[in-house]
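User: Fold this, then the next.

Assistant: Folding the first:
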Amino acid sequence: MRTCLLVMLWASLSLYVDNMSITRRIVVEMGEMEGEKEEDRDGGKGEKLLKRFKRGWMWNQFFLQEEYTGSDKQYIGKLQSDMDRGDGTLKYILSGDGAGDIFTIDENNGDLHANKRLDREDKAFYTLRATVVNKNTGIKLEPETEFIVKLHDINDNEPIFTKELYTVSVPERSNMGTSVTQVTATDADDSMYGNSAKLRYSISQGHPYFSVEPDTGIIRTALGPGEMDREKREHYQVVIEAKDMAGQRGGLTGTTTVNITLTDVNDNPPRFSQSIYQFSVPESMKAGTPVGRIKAVDKDLGKNAEMFYNVVGGDGLDMFDVITDKDSQEGIITVGKPLDYEKTRSYTLEIQVQNTQTLDTRFLGYLPTKDMATVRIGIEDVDEPPLFERASYMMEVKEDAAVGTAVGSVRAMDPDGYNSPVRYSIDRRTDLDRLFNVHSGNGSVFITRPLDREEAAWHNISVIATEFNKPLQTSRGPVYIRLLDVNDNAPTFASFYETFVCEKTKAGQVRNIQTVSAVDADDPAGGHKFFFSLATEGAYRGNFTVRDNGDNTAGVLTRRSSYSRLHKSVYLVPVVITDGDFPMQSSTGTLTVRVCTCDREGNMELCNAEAQTSSAGLSTGALVAILLCVIILLMIIVLFAALKKQKKKEPLIISKEDVRDNVVSYNDEGGGEEDTQAFDIGALRNPEAIEESKQRRDIIPSDTLYPPLRQTVIPSRDNADVRDFINQRVQDNDNNPTAPPYDSLATYAYEGTGSVAESLSSLGSASSEGDQDYNYLSDWGPRFRKLADMYGAEDSDCDS
């Protein structure tokens, strides 16, 4: 059929070309005749005029059918020149695209032929040039003329799809007419000539599930949601056909394959494969141990098939749990609480399963979205060890309880149905001192050795319960024993106390020379209460006394006005300490009091050699250590001094901004009271003359850092007091915003308005012919103490 069509087209085209050639010849001959007529008219006038000749040959284009299948050369047309008289003196020459290879011309008569089979899809036209020359002289007789050879298209290319295979997907349950994908085909034939490249699409495989639009190639679903169910069929293979010639008969076709997959939607709830599950578990299983697995089936895929399980009913609701295995989507039943075969031998659970994702209920109808299953769990009996009645035992006993005293008792029993007898023992690893024991039959715990709360207030032991007939069946019960306190320890001094007393004290002056406290190893319920007093015997009672402060401390006071180192340098004062618990306990502590020489302020200056040695209370080794430390310290000082000499002398002030901890030596001498530039002595004489806004000299002046200071209130001379003045100056410096964040020297230049020293004038002194007390001379210094001893009328060393 295709060959017949080609032959008919070739015949038609040949006739057309012949007609064009005949017409061209007629036109050329007519042109020649008109030229001759014009020559005759001009010649008759006897003049030679310039005239315009028409070109003897002129071609625009030739047409050639593609895919020529004949055995001879394909004739294209004939080139004819007016100068060709047929005498063989002219020569036709061809140049351009394919000249001499694809196209040839008969140099004698101008016939143009195609030597090869041409394909319009490779090249649609060729541009050629032709000219005529004289064979003998080679002179061009005609100017070169350009023409085109066009190839006529035939329907020789079938449609080709952009892909040989399409893979697409569409959700299941999609509505009818849902777009799936679009396929596209192309045709290499000439779309401007006939219907060779006009395509139509059709579906040859895939009915009745899908359809395709003829003009666009869009594939759509052809069935409703009820038919497009992934669980029934998931994969479809559709064959699409593209046909040229607008789909008419005789057109060429191309095909492609489209693989369509229905994607899953959550349209199926999970369902148990069976309604009743049965498991058995031994009663010894611990909490959290898996019992068994149940599984529901969901026809969906991926997240749409994820589910979770939970216990919603049954008598085992509180005894068992269920968790979901994310990998296998199984429900794992686990033990929630300890099991006991003797109490309950079986349990029933109602377990529910449902999807984690929202379920599409459009296609479920009246079907439930959840499913239920019954699980029956049987408990198996296990030979268990004895079980104590309590998880732990707490017992109390007094620390002075006699050996053999019962502290308490424990009790365990065989939980099995056999009710085997139990014997008790103590784990000696928890009672290394063997202070306790337990009766093997009744579990009574008793004391085997004396106890002391001050050594250990708590004892933690373990009692072992063992089945009499099965020694391997054992269990342990912790027992915590607390020892109750008994007042069996006397209070003692909290530390070693040692103090001193001055030789000379003012008449009638009673001083607290030491405060003492006590400790007690006992722990009474109401807390400690101590009482202090002097021992009832001894000569020290006339020299010292004890005053109980009522807060478990006491003060030791002197009862004499003066003491003498020469007479007695050390006093041992016994203090009786008594607690307030029952039975009352007491002890005697000794306070060491040494007689020393003191200054007027009561500070110790000198004690005798015995006092120095004994008061230190140091051993020979300690004295050697102290001596070594002193030597090392001296060496460090010498080394530091040597390094300081070698160190380069630094400038007086390293930085103007840094004035901290710098000692500035001006190396000048003040002018005394007359030198008012260096120091204003008037501040000592007249406190009211102090400047109100005197700036500090240890920091850099700044206008912004020195707001006006408030005026210092100076007490009047009638009630002026040094302490009030100093406190006022301290407050001013504390509130000064320019005070530096480091230690600085603040001068409180105020002498005061009076003196505690009495007048030395004899006119104001009271004179008496009677005995005088010269002890006040001791306050004047060491030089006057001897004088006071010489003129003293009363022997101060006598004991009253």
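Now the next one, as you asked:
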Amino acid sequence: MFLPNTGAHSVSVSSATMSASASFRSNPATEVPIHNLGLERSKEKVKHLFEHIDLSISSYDTAWVAMVPLPSSRQVPCFPKCLNWILENQLHNGSWGLSHRHSLLVKDALSSTLACVLALKQWGIGETQINKGLDYIGSNLASIRDDNQLSPIGFDIIFSGLIEYADRLNLNLPLESADRDGILQKRDVELRSYHGGDLESGRAYWAYISEGIREFQDWEMVMKYQRKNGSLFNSPSATAAAFCHTRDDGCLSYLHAVLEKFGSSVPTVYPFNIYARLCMVDSIESLGIERHFWKEIKTALDDTYRSWIQGDEDIFLDAATCAMAFRLLRVHGYDISSDPLTRFSEENVFSSPSGCLEDITALLELFKSSQVMLHPEETILEEQNRLTKHFLKENVSNGSSSLDVFGGYVRQKVDDALQFPFHANLERVALRRNIKSYVVDSTRVLKTSFRSSNIANKDVLKLAVEEFNSCQLLYHEELKYLERWVEEYRLDRLKFARQKLTYCYFSAAATICSPELFDARISWAKNGVLTTVVDDFFDVGGSKEELENLIQLIEKFDSTAGIHCHSEVVKIIYSALHDSIAEIGNKAFSLQGHDVTGHVIDIWLDLLRSMLQEALWSRNKTMPSIEEYMKNGYVSFALGPIILPTLYLVGPRLSLEVAKGPETSHLFELVSTCGRLLNDVQGFKRESTQGKLNALSLHMIHGNAACTEDIVEEIKSIVHDRRRELLRSVLQEKGSIVPRACKDLFWNMCKILHLFYMKDDGFTSHEMFDVVTSVVGDPILRDDV
């Protein structure tokens, strides 16, 4: 559309931007310290947990260890101090297990209590404690038939085995014959499936609950799962049972080692340090407080990487640990192969009969790790992505009421992971979800319940809420500043231009979250606004003469004597562009120590010339080839002025040679190609009615595919490949000269694009309102968490 020339105007560039910026930077709200004494104590507690793993004692496992006889005499306990611990740690209601446990953990208390009673009965001590334990069991046996009660892993098998051992010890249990028969029948049904199954996951499951099978067990098969530390699955109870039947020296050495660590009792899993520290890294990063723990995170990941390289069993034999280690190490730039994940196939993970929360946690970790795919040959990750997505949807949709109580945090994580995949999950948007769904109760359930502050604790949540709300106040101030800037430069008076300041600032605050990076956020948001204005100006708002006039003014920049603005619109746009470029140049000079203004001018000229080319194609009704369109189109998509100047403002030193070099240019082309194609797929109908060129329409015109659906699938495949190549380029350190903080900007923009174009082309989506509000809206209240 051609607009009449409104006459010539002299150029007058305002310096208001710099003064407004200086005023903004002196605002105390830009400082986000966490100086409250209580918060400082919370930080110290969290740091302490990186070095000292917190793990509750297991009455259940301690009882099994207490039943182990001396190798030289079956009439003498090998670990009498465990018996003493049992005598001294019975709860006031007669049970053993976690204190202050949830009301749905009665089955867990029953198995722990019966195991402790049997340990005392076996060695003929603690008659008072035995009787109190039996009273508790008799008063709570109805819970065994309660389907709402949470069943620990293997409960039906293990509790049945404990009942039969009580018979051998002539211990009279307060158990009705009908209840007894019902429990044993359930055990027999499971045992028949055990002997008829041949899946690796099934064999591992039965080996894990060996103490419940005893004489029915194939101990030769079981010992195939023995680890280098002598244990079975790092489980003291399974290892104790194995020693009682096999007299294996490795099993005994493991039990001695655990007691040397914990004294007179044992946890339900040991060692636990790798998984616990990875959980801390993951929680801290997902809650947005990693800037306070850089040193601890780096140390934890370096240690994990060494363990990975050494083939540590504690990583490679556990699906959840291996998947989490793989994801975190890869995302942090460690060069590791996905080969170890091949052992976690459909046969030995996805068909686990236990149906417990730990299975879902492992599936979730495998699903998240499968999305960090860097190489085309990593087909195992593609297959795991497909399988885990299917099983997660199935398992959570069929969850029990107990899953709602103890697995609510897992259910929310699964829902979030399925709805927001890695390539469309913006950091700041995820923070609010993660904080509001964070559960400080660290209770988890294996064969028995346990707690670990490394998995969840209130200090981490306290820090996260404070950090989130402090940044939220800062973001409010920045957005108000940008609103004043838009008004001051009269950008809101351009009737043809979409007013998308909030969206543009959202894309900055959602990904460039660190409070000290306000210059980067302001540059990103301002240039987002300006590229939107310029895009609309070249589409519908300007005549050919005005478009060329604007380009000429930018080409001359500070040497515009004798050059006039052809219209008031050109004057408004040029004034805003000029001052924004100058402001970025000044700020970048103070950070980098060299002048980048010329580079920023070139970035804008590349965009303006590409937009002019598209405008001429449209106005002349010229149909370029697909190759011509894409070569021009990835530039005209207008990410250049948003991303590239911001590279100078995120911290690392960046020379002009690197900023303009081939690696940076390749990153820019990859993300811009993704954006252009995503836009063309989602905006096809709208842009077709506007007569705008589009990759889909050009494919149809040039006859490259039989139907629209085929074209869409082809383009989606290209986006998938470019996105994977972009992620590989961002995470790869070998041979890279672009600082990681700079490369992250390209990946963050890719995430923004995928979120915006998830259903339609973002700027026209009403569904984006809630997402934007979550970043630049209200703080998190205490009642929300």
